[in-house]
Amino acid sequence: MLTRRVLLAGAALASLMAAPGLGLAQHAALEPDPATDVRQEMPRRYMMEDLYGNVMTNEDFQGKFVLVYFGYTGCPDVCPTSLSTMAEVLERLGEEKAAGIAPLFVSVDPDRDTAKLMRDYLEFFDPRIVGLRGPVAYTDHMVKAFNARYEKHIPDPNQPDLYSIDHTASIAFLDPGGFLIKRYPHGTSAEAIAADMDKIMTEAMQ
Q: Which positions make up the signal peptide (predicted)?
């Protein structure tokens, strides 16, 4: 089932790609510095919209573990791989554990990522993944709150709408209070992530 999902996503996403992307090395350069990526005194706070126009804040996910991934629908490689991994993690954890997790996909391309486009995009991965989008100012605030980064690259100044975006590619894992537990680097297997999350969640419930 997982293999079929990945194949279907790969085929369908080809029609959604808006611009060529950057290599993993560029994404890795935007990962948070472990020395500064510490647990905050206050939870990571933000306000965005879901894909149906509802205002969502960090408080809407209080009481749940949260997975957060920043990306965009035009990303040709890193984002589809990460979202496929996230979907597989949810399946590996099982329905009961997955019900206690809020998986979020946050667009860093609000100019192009409409709600409909994001709904169509996420449909290929897992309906439980919640898409969030918002004005640039709100997006930047959430990105900063998570100590993440993104950069827009415009190869041809005469075609400003044809751009790619380099961004933090790890998946952030938060506790039910909204505090960062850890980050899973891009390329970490779903099996390894699920096993680690299962251990953390089980210990938290004891």
A: 1-25
Q: Is 75 annotated as ligand-binding?
A: yes
pLDDT, tens digit only, all 206 positions of the chain? 444 344 444 444 444 443 444 444 445 555 655 555 555 555 788 999 999 999 999 999 999 999 999 999 998 889 999 999 999 999 999 999 999 999 999 999 999 999 999 999 999 999 999 999 999 999 999 999 998 999 988 877 887 777 889 999 999 999 999 999 999 999 999 999 999 999 999 998 87
Q: Provide the 8-state DSSP code for 133.
A: B
Q: Estimate to the nearest angstrom the gap between the alpha carbon of 94 and the chain centroid.
A: 20
Tokens of 61: 């996910």
Q: Which of 40, 20, 54, 51 is nearest to 154 (CA)?
A: 20
Instruction: Indicate the SS3 state at residue 173.
Output: strand
Question: Contact, 154 vs 163, CB < 8 A?
Answer: yes
Q: Which domains does the chain have, with CATH numbers?
A: 2-205 (3.40.30.10)
79 is in an annotated binding site: yes
Q: Is 27 annotated as a binding residue?
A: no
As to burial, measured by CB atoms within 10 angstroms (0-12 exposed, 13-18 middle, 19+ buried), residue 177 is exposed
Per DSSP, the residues of 85-113 read HHHHHHHHHHHHHHTTEEEEEEES-TTT-
The CA-based angle 84-85-87, given to 5 degrees, is 65
